[in-house]
Amino acid sequence: MTRLEYRGKMILAPMVKVGTLPMRLLALEYGADIVYTEEIIDMRLLGSERVENKLLGTIDYIDRRDNSLVFRTCSKEKDRLVLQIGTADGDRAAAAARKVE
After folding, report:
1. Nearest alpha-carbon partner for 92 in 45, 36, 51
2. N or C: which end of the chain has fewer CB within 10 A?
């Protein structure tokens, strides 16, 4: 995991319902240096399965209970993405971060 440098950077601030991959990629294309995900609850990430989506060229995390998309990322945002994890337990948050590392 790369440590991000925030000084002098153009950052797409975290926003509710607008932190999905298409918006993040658009922000990067228009000059953002760092982008944020929407807040994702740790238990949803921990209960998800990592799937390589060859059609879209993405890595998807799919909730095993209902097959819904929890998180989607791609190589274009590597080392420029901040994953926001909602949690009430530091150990669970760390486990969720390791899962998507």
Report:
1. 45
2. C
**Residues 26-49 pLDDT 10s:** 999 999 999 999 999 999 999 999
pTM of the model: 0.90
The pairing of strands 58-63 and 69-73 is antiparallel
- Residue-wise pLDDT for 57-98, tens only, equals 999 999 999 999 999 999 999 999 999 999 999 999 999 999
Using CA atoms, how far residue 31 sits from 24, 35, 57, 78, in Å, is 11, 10, 22, 15
Helix, coil or strand: residue 43: helix
Place of tokens 């390589």: 52
**How do strand 58-63 and strand 48-53 relate by DSSP bridges?**
antiparallel
What one-letter code names the amino acid at 98?
R
